[in-house]
Specification:
- With 214 residues, this protein is an alpha/beta fold.
- The protein contains 10 helices and 5 strands; from the N terminus they run E-H-E-H-E-H-E-H-E-H-H-H-H-H-H.
- InterPro entries: CheY-like_superfamily (IPR011006), EvgA-like (IPR051015), NreC/VraR/RcsB-like_REC (IPR058245), Sig_transdc_resp-reg_C-effctor (IPR016032), Sig_transdc_resp-reg_receiver (IPR001789), Tscrpt_reg_LuxR_C (IPR000792).
- Pfam families: GerE, Response_reg.
- This is DNA-binding response regulator.
Length: 214
């Protein structure tokens, strides 16, 4: 792919610039857009339906660990996502794979590695560091449950995790309060949760595990 459209989602401008520089070196014809939060990531994808690849940091504002990855995979399943993170713990890499990422690039990687990984994924493949952690059936089950949610229900779920009341969620998402109630009921049923608190705890489980590597 000679002129792919790539979206770099990271809240650190200096790191975004470094990634963009690496992309320019590996793919001189690439078109690159930027996002600095989970909200702007969604807006950028809606505005750029021709996006071929997303490079995604896990710790942006508005994201609960892997929630942004799951949201993109649910709302734009045709767009591959490569996680790029300073947390290189093997458990985090394995979870990214199980939650639908097409690749994982440690932030400590040289520019050549970024280019290699992006090229591999754009060619239809995958790119991960060697994995030493076994696949988790618990994560597989969690991903399957979350995949049942519509994009709007996923947004409502993230608001629940932030402790918002139905009225606040309605204001945040521009919905009628009764519509929020319907979504909450459906969310709890699909996730097999008995309470809003239990659903919030489930979202918290999406946080990466293992110490970040500086």
């Amino acid at each position: 792919m000679s002129s792919p459209s790539i979206l770099v989602a990271d809240d650190h401008p200096l790191f975004r610039n470094a990634v963009i520089h690496a992309l320019r070196g590996a793919l001189p014809g690439a078109t690159v857009a930027e996002a600095a939060s989970a909200a702007s990531l969604g807006q950028a994808l809606d505005a750029r339906p021709d996006t071929d690849l997303v490079l995604l940091d896990l710790t942006m504002p508005g994201a609960h660990g892997f929630s942004a990855l799951l949201h993109v995979r649910g709302e734009h399943p045709e767009v591959p996502v490569v996680v790029i993170s300073s947390n290189e713990h093997p458990r985090v890499i394995r979870r990214a794979q199980q939650f639908g990422a097409a690749g994982f690039i440690p932030k400590s990687s040289p520019a050549e590695t970024i280019g290699e990984a992006v090229t591999a994924v754009l060619d239809g493949g995958a790119w991960f560091p060697p994995l030493t952690v076994e696949r988790s059936e618990q994560d597989a089950a969690l991903a399957a449950r979350l995949a049942q949610l519509t994009p709007q229900q996923f947004r409502v779920l993230l608001c629940l995790a932030d402790g918002l009341l139905n009225k606040q969620i309605a204001h945040e998402l521009g919905l009628a309060e009764n519509t929020v109630k319907v979504h909450v009921t459906a969310i709890l049923k699909k996730l097999e949760c008995h309470s809003r608190t239990q659903a919030a705890v489930l979202v918290k489980s999406l946080e990466p595990e293992g110490p970040p590597v500086e």
